[in-house]
């Protein structure tokens, strides 16, 4: 099914995208829906993008639900080990 | 039916008079002089992609002029289908009124072809299934085909930026072919039952086929959800339905 539900978040960072070029990431969209490439009926999809640079300025991720949760845990664990003064 | 056809990208006038991209496939050759019906193919939420264009060409192979408007052309002209879908999703998706206007423009284009017989069907899969029913509730169409469209009936959670079509179904003017997988969750068997009951109660012409061992997106040959038996039977049902209503 197409869930229609899309979560969005403002981003400040960089991603390596089309043409192996780095670009500044300003926006993320997160949704659970059909993947384009992953071999699963549904995946947790994340688009890291800079809409100001056009539709092609995007890094897309398609992760199984299990993989997405593992990623969340890994991110939280990585951040948990960082001194508070470095977290901005 | 002929395997000689032409396919190309064109520009049509969609909702609000906007010029939008569309993919057109037409039978060619002396065996296919027309007049013939037309089919508007509504792409699924992942976009105006290769798999959808293959379906458009298949309708030409079946003997119809077929067209698929790029519903995301306004948000991302010239972008790859997956990038365009990402942009459209981030911007809230396709408004229902705009979808109806784009299908109206696509149908008008088909009716304007020198081979057109004035009869046009609409078909969509997944979100396009809901869109096909939506279009058939607002436009003069001769047939509509809903392939596992979610949120035609049933409760829509309030956080979802869409609505069901229950209040619009009384306006359904075209015969409806529905193809559904019994293992699907959206639409569930109960939601398909609800749709069938509504159509029965209001005296609509419809034909439903439901497949065991099939869930959502069983027509999608490039996805794990593909179910060959259901898809093959579904294509036969589609061909039969169109030959009945577009002749």
Question: Gist?
Answer:
Chain A has one helix and four strands, in the order ββββα. Chain A has 88 residues and is of the alpha+beta class. Chain B is an alpha/beta fold.
Assembly state (oligomeric):
heterodimer
Taken as a percent bin, the fraction of beta residues of chain B is 15-25%
Strand content of chain A: 35-45%
- Overall shape of chain A: globular
Query: What number of domains of chain A?
Result: 1
Most extensive chain interface and residues per partner: A-B, 24 and 35 residues
**How would you name the CATH homologous superfamily of chain B?**
Alpha/Beta hydrolase fold, catalytic domain
Uncertain stretches of chain B: none
Helix-strand string of chain B: EEEHEHHEHEEHEH
H/E element order of chain A = EEEEH
How helical, in percent, are the residues of chain B? 25-40%
Instruction: Flag low-confidence runs of chain A.
Output: none
What is the second-level CATH architecture of chain B? 3-Layer(aba) Sandwich
Description:
The complex is a heterodimer of chains A (88) and B (247). By secondary structure, chain A is of the alpha+beta class. Chain A has one domain. Helices cover 18% and strands 40% of the residues of chain A. A 4-stranded antiparallel sheet of chain A has the order 1-2-3-4. Helices cover 32% and strands 23% of the residues of chain B. Chain B has an 8-stranded mixed sheet, with helices on both faces. Classes of the chains: A alpha+beta (88), B alpha/beta (247). The A-B interface holds A 1-6, 8, 27, 29, 31, 33-34, 36, 39-41, 47, 49, 51, 54-56, 58, 60 and B 44-46, 49, 75-76, 79-80, 82-84, 86-87, 89-90, 92-93, 126-127, 150-151, 159-162, 184-187, 215-217, 223-225.
Keywords:
heterodimer; A: 88 residues; alpha+beta; 1 helix; B: 247 residues; alpha/beta; Rossmann fold; eight-stranded mixed beta sheet
């Amino acid at each position: 099914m197409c869930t229609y539900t899309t979560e969005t978040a403002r981003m400040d960072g960089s991603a390596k995208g089309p043409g192996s070029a780095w670009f500044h990431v300003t926006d993320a969209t997160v949704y659970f829906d059909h993947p384009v490439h992953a071999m699963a009926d549904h995946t947790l999809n994340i688009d890291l993008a800079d809409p100001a640079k056009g539709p092609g300025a995007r890094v897309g991720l398609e992760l199984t639900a299990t993989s997405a949760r593992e990623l969340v845990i890994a991110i939280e664990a990585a951040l948990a080990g960082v001194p508070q003064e470095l977290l901005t | 039916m002929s395997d000689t056809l032409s396919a190309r990208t064109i520009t049509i006038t969609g909702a609000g008079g906007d010029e939008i991209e569309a993919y057109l496939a037409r039978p060619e050759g002396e065996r296919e002089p027309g007049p013939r019906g037309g089919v508007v193919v509504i792409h699924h939420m992942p976009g105006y992609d290769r798999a959808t264009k293959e379906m458009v060409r298949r309708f030409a192979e079946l003997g119809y002029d077929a067209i698929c408007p790029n519903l995301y052309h306004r948000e991302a002209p010239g972008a790859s289908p997956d990038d365009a879908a990402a942009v459209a999703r981030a911007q809230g998706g396709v408004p229902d009124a705009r979808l109806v206007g784009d299908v109206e423009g696509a149908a008008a284009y088909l009716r304007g072809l020198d081979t057109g017989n004035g009869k046009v069907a609409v078909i969509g899969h997944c979100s396009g299934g809901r869109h096909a029913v939506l279009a058939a509730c607002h436009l003069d169409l001769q047939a509509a085909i809903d392939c596992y469209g979610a949120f035609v009936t049933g409760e829509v959670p309030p956080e979802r930026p869409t609505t069901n079509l229950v209040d619009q179904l009384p306006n359904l003017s075209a015969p409806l072919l529905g193809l559904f997988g019994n293992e699907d969750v959206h639409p569930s068997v109960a939601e398909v039952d609800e749709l069938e009951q509504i159509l029965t109660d209001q005296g609509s012409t419809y034909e439903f086929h439901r497949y065991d061992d099939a869930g959502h997106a069983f027509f999608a040959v490039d996805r794990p959800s593909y179910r060959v038996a259901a898809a093959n039977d579904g294509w036969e049902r589609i061909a039969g339905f169109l030959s009945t209503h577009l002749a």
